[in-house]
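Sequence in, structure out.
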Amino acid sequence: MTALETTGLTKYYGETRGIEDLSLAVTEGEVFGYLGPNGAGKTTTIRTLLGFIAPTGGDATVLGYDVRDERALIEAKRHLGYLPSDPGFDEDATGTEFLDYQASLKGDDRREELLELFDAPVERKIEEFSRGNKQKLAIVSAFMHDPDLVIMDEPTSGLDPLMQERFYDFLDDEQERGVTIFFSSHVLSEVRKVCDRVGIIRDGKLVTTEDVETLLDRSGKRVRMRTSDPIDREDFDIDGVHDLTLDGAVQFTFTGEYDTLLDHLSRYHIVDVDIEEAPLDEVFMRFYGDEIAGSEREDGETTDVADDVPVSDGGESHV
């Protein structure tokens, strides 16, 4: 069964492309990572799936409900959780008052369990919360009604490293319970930790959709070796060698046949060799290269196009 599906989904803000011709499917019980730097179209995709903004073209369903059908989407949201990257709260309310209100809208099957796990100080006013405590409150809100599908936008934003690990373990447990997770991220390490598959989006278009292990295998191995023989750059002019450096040791990424690599290495007297998976950063850069730097603002921050363009369809990023 498919929990989330898009076919040719497109959203333009005037002449500015948010997403274009986006087609993907997420199966029930899957943890799907939606990967790309800020500005790629991740938030636009999520806002469109949730009905916060209307698509320009194409189709999308969430739990089998058409996102263009307002009545159907209301029914879908009874079984849907949402965790925005920057949750919006009534700052004058206490955490308990906020959760009481959410419970009146969608149910309250797991509040106490989740508060024990994530320890948000719900007795205090939200205006007194740290960024991390606001994120923990948003997590509780997203899962408290025991949804079948949870859509998350940069879900670990504001969480300290220990709480991030707790959240990853929690997602593993949720998947075992059959919950489907769709989340956007530009934090590469968390994709490897929790995802079954990943979709990479670039300039509003889906570049590839693959399981994480296949993506890493296709991106090759990182090789570092030292030999007792002098090495020239021409010595490693073979298919599959990328990013070769000679700095006391020979280092490169290899994407060719491993038998070919081992046969070539056997020609040298090797003092030390280390072969490991290419870092996920390098995998990501194969799809983006220097364009990531070009997407940054002059002040060093990055943004999704949806955050820069006024949303006239009434969309908000509130929990």
